[in-house]
Amino acid sequence: MGISVLKAGMLTTLQDVGRFGFQKYGMPVSGAMDSLALRLGNMLVGNAETEVALECTLVGPALLFEAGQLISITGGDLSAKLNGKAVPMWKPIAVSEGSTLTFGKAVRGCRSYVCFRGGLAVSQVMGSKATYLAAAIGGWKGRALKKNDFIPFLSIDNRATENVNWRLGSGLYPSNPAKSIRFTEGPHYQDFDDDSRKSFCSDTFLVSKNSNRMGYRLDAPALRLSTPRELLSSAVTFGTVQVPPGGKPIVLMADHPTTGGYPVIGQVIEVDFPLLAQLQPDDRIRFERVTLEQAQHLLRSRSVKMQLLKRSIALKHEK
């Protein structure tokens, strides 16, 4: 028993937290663009944080449940409805057999995550169930979902008809009405000229429509090195901000390559990855410089809150 895909949506894939340990062979980590939303969604239904879920982008799918199941919907708001009625986010939702979950267009953010109690029955590739589209591996047949796909549940939740009257508070998942993204200086930050460094910290950047899971291309006045030079390729990661010869920055995302040869002006801090992941094409953002110590403090603080939340949710599921 599982879900039948009635409509695929714009880009719906199966993602977990990623494929670790293979970057030295050129294999990206991949995984969820917004791993915080995925982790929180899995917590809500009592799963391990790393369990696979659906990542729905901009326009979500329509799914028929062929068995009752406990689910959660987190991340961006893609106008989810259950049997035609608006369904709340950030809480466990009991879905009965024969129900249809549909999504419309994004009204806030870009990506929603649908987590299922017990997970989905797909095989691991290199220790992960994440879909890496460029190599056609992982997830469901290594590709985005299509109409008439059927994905089995790993297990059936017998409590899927019970009412759940609690939800996640708004304090842990970040809100970003100003669309400000914090970064630490990259290894080549000081190699850019004064105007470029000032521009990077003060100008507004437009997220190009030519953006995807590999990276976001940003449009603004070009950034320039003080003295143009050739660079050796070096390791890059999620949130690395590279500047190619044209001067338009690229923020690397979940499907980023393992190395790059462009100068790196900055590194987006980890606690702001969800803010990046939920940006839509044509959104405008600004960058704010912080120190490495500030970035580490923010990450430690979030980690403590996550652990406390995990214990609290586990107690609720035990009742």
UniProtKB/TrEMBL annotation:
Gene3D superfamilies: Cyclophilin-like (2.40.100.10). Residues 24-305 form the Carboxyltransferase domain. InterPro entries: CT_A_B (IPR003778), Cyclophilin-like_dom_sf (IPR029000), PxpC (IPR052708). Keywords: ATP-binding, Hydrolase, Nucleotide-binding. It comes from the Bacteria. Pfam families: CT_A_B. This is KipI antagonist. It comes from Sphingobacterium griseoflavum.
